[in-house]
Amino acid sequence: xxxxxxxxxxxxxxxxxxxxxxxxxxxxxxxxxxxxxxxxxxxxxxxxxxxxxxxxxxxxxxxxxxxxxxxxxxxxxxxxxxxxxxxxxxxxxxxxxxxxxxxxxxxxxxxxxxxxxxxxxxxxxxxxxxxxxxxxxxxxxxxxxxxxxxxxxxxxxxxxxxxxxxxxxxxxxxxxxxxxxxxxxxxxxxxxxxxxxxxxxxxxxxxxxxxxxxxxxxxxxxxxxxxxxxxxxxxxxxxxxxxxxxxxxxxxxxxxxxxxxxxxxxxxxxxxxxxxxxxxxxxxxxxxxxxxxxxxxxxxxxxxxxxxxxxxxxxxxxxxxxxxxxxxxxxxxxxxxxxxxxxxxxxxxxxxxxxxxxxxxxxxxxxxxxxxxxxxxxxxxxxxxxxxxxxxxxxxxxxxxxxxxxxxxxxxxxxxxxxxxxxxxxxxxxxxxxxxxxxxxxxxxxxxxxxxxxxxxxxxxxxxxxxxxxxxxxxxxxxxxxxxxxxxxxxxxxxxxxxxxxxxxxxxxxxxxxxxxxxxxxxxxxxxxxxxxxxxxxxxxxxxxxxxxxxxxxxxxxxxxxxxxxxxxxxxxxxxxxxxxxxxxxxxxxxxxxxxxxxxxxxxxxxxxxxxxxxxxxxxxxxxxxxxxxxxxxxxxxxxxxxxxxxxxxxxxxxxxxxxxxxxxxxxxxxxxxxxxxxxxxxxxxxxxxxxxxxxxxxxxxxxxxxxxxxxxxxxxxxxxxxxxxxxxxxxxxxxxxxxxxxxxxxxxxxxxxxxxxxxxxxxxxxxxxxxxxxxxxxxxxxxxxxxxxxxxxxxxxxxxxxxxxxxxxxxxxxxxxxxxxxxxxxxxxxxxxxxxxxxxxxxxxxxxxxxxxxxxxxxxxxxxxxxxxxxxxxxxxxxxxxxxxxxxxxxxxxxxxxxxxxxxxxxxxxxxxxxxxxxxxxxxxxxxxxxxxxxxxxxxxxxxxxxxxxxxxxxxxxxxxxxxxxxx
Length: 969
Fold this sequence. Notes:
This protein is an alpha/beta fold. 32% of the residues lie in helices and 22% in strands.
């Protein structure tokens, strides 16, 4: 038997498919490390293959699982049967199964959790309970139990969700009542698994059931009954020119009053002077059909038939309704008459279906771009299809995963003898770091790489770190590759994500653009993966959401390694660890140091049209023009205070804003914090308003005049008096986007200001709306958080003001300086990307800090040398790796006890395994010690391979193991 999984064919021997003694190894959607074996019942023999989604009994409940492999034997004697096959096609490919196995080992996560990353939301049904009566003649004493029994007697067996929705039980805690009744044997409570929520979307269709040439002949019968039409039809059909009145009325089964009405309308003449009275038509016979349609009001029905006659395929009824004003009753009447056929067809939910993208021609490359492109082009063209085959799955061990005890001896090349590890030294022959300043043309390199990959019959994945960037990237990619692009991110509906996943599985598009989860789109043959803004922390999945806590960059590398493809990591401020690896030759470093504004002719035309002198210089060996990165003016806010300026805007920034607005240009004001005041306190007793669930200061928001927690979402009322001493002297301190927006309106009331942050834009559509409004010059100033710093192309922005450059600089995290440099450099890069050039005003209380100095000079190399030396001295990544163990419990004592228990266990394990190069840091409370009513402690393992002491360890509930964490707060 052959299983066809896209372009890859996995051969399954016939005796493995049809033998009743076959077993399937299954990974279940549950937080367990092991895989499990089930026997294949006779009704499923020959129907199962690796990758199929099945339903199995797991413990005392039903569970969804994915078939990993088929075997003739089982490692356990007693096996349960597979209950059902839930999808006729495999839901994961063999490559994805092997990738999930790698992720499970790499991130110490359950295999099932890794596999379910690759499925769209809603593929697993929710757990529920089905309740049925065992004894229907019992009347319990408890009122709630009485209601449950009465409901079951009247309606039969019910699920938990049905009991939840029952008006009879509204406000009742029926769960406890059901437990008591089940223990008493009065009813049976069976755990069940609901079917997956996702289903293909079906739309009703209509098609013509007759030959289109016959429409004129059936037209006279359309519409409703009409005695006048019947008389007219009878007259037209009679051979006699003037039949008698009696003959006509008898044939038409009509009254004399109806005939008289036709005579009044001038359609017939009644010859009363003749005996017997006779009738004749007053219109030509060829006009009769039109009159019949009119009298029977069949115009709409005739229009429906004519519209359907133009279609070669069944037509979506919603489109038919729009064209004909028809309703479902009209279509059902025509179906009953045998004139049309109503049916259903499957349709795709595509978030891009209603959007048009104008095809774009690729520009000519500059010399620097050509040099970078030459290396990438050679790598893509170097792919050898004949050597590209799917390796067979690794044979399963004779034990379940996790059962074999870990070795207490360090493996060879573990790196324990010194710094560095085998993993860090492994190179990837076709991986590139494209380090280009903002506006250097990285996107054009990406698009050419996609074009060449598609020309080879392979597919491409283009990742961006944030939903906010997706819309702009989709526009550029879809304009170059119309009809070949799909988008994947968490902002889509479940149905849209499900259909995109199905379309990918069937090979119906070639390029996917999206955030982190787009990496697992089941394209047939991924030959290219692009991570734009590769330094961004959004590519890392971190606690407390469900594991695995993977980094998209590491998973992309592994995918490309297994699939013989090309990986491009692009950024103006790449991750220090990525740059370090490039320096060691593990990645190929390509640089684009020049900011390109566009082609000479287009720029000069714009300059002449706008009456603005061009500020560009020619690029060598190219018809493009370039411009320097915008100058950055650093303002010492300490001096502003000494000069008596207590505004959040320095005098330099106020002047720059006034000049920008006067010239009709645009500005961006960046502050990396939402709200109006960062904390609220009492000036008499010092009380600070804290989140009751997180113990962190609440932020004041002018919208709704509320205090909000940005960690857990708690919201409280604005205080009018101190709850501690009842003083009215409440002070609002600090600044956020709302306060900057308000200050902007006060200083410049004529300016059109919009604020773009998580409070104003809660979904992708809102992100795109705010961005488009600004691009179309419907606003003069945009106030925003990190969203405005990430890769956006805003050509009309000539001024960027950084309101507070120090935020985050002094956090207790070894990456704090790197993050601050990256965000300052990125936001500065939003200025001067258009015809008018630009400038940056950077406000700080620490102008002497090396991060501020490097960012103001756009000096990545200088910052890198200083920061990498500090990392080397402290033994932090990339010189040694980290694992963070986070302990999160409702009780502070429990969190501390678990952290100390883990530390003691790991100390002993490190000593027994003789891991002399492994260190433990902590345990200690987290910087954010309490989040959403949970106390948080953590400890760090620092080593060349910090996962060694964790191998085979049971992960207790409340423990979160984060491999290579991106933050330690």
